[in-house]
Write a structure and sequence with these properties.
Blueprint: H1 19-48, E1 59-64, E2 86-90, E3 95-97
Antiparallel strand pairs: 1-2, 2-3
Protein name: Potato type II proteinase inhibitor family
Family: Belongs to the protease inhibitor I20 (potato type II proteinase inhibitor) family.
InterPro entries: Prot_inh_I20, Protease_inhibitor_I20
């Protein structure tokens, strides 16, 4: 019986990836995943943001239903009023009802 021995030779460039290369893939994948999560959260936050006009009324004080009518320092306009249930009392005696 003839026995043949096959010898296989591998080319140096066909070596398996080193463990160092493999170990950098996991942190990179985690970093990309976390970055995507943060960006998605920021986009959601920006989508829910309120755009307010940049003008201020001349006001003395304001009251809000949530504070049982307590006199508060006035905000620039109704857009900045907390909860939207406030009244801004103007310097000229008028009032601005925030809805």
């Amino acid at each position: 019986m003839l026995s043949r021995h096959l010898h296989t030779h591998t080319h140096p460039s066909s070596k398996r990836p080193s463990s160092r290369m493999s170990s950098t893939k996991l942190p990179l994948a985690i970093l990309l995943l976390l970055s995507g999560t943060v960006m998605f959260g920021w986009i959601q936050y920006c989508a829910e943001a309120k755009v307010c006009p940049l003008f201020c009324v001349q006001a003395e004080y304001m009251t809000c239903n949530s504070t049982a009518g307590e006199r508060l320092n006035p905000v620039c306009n109704c857009c900045f009023a907390p909860g939207g249930d406030c009244t801004i009392y103007l310097s000229n005696g008028g009032k601005l009802q925030c809805a």
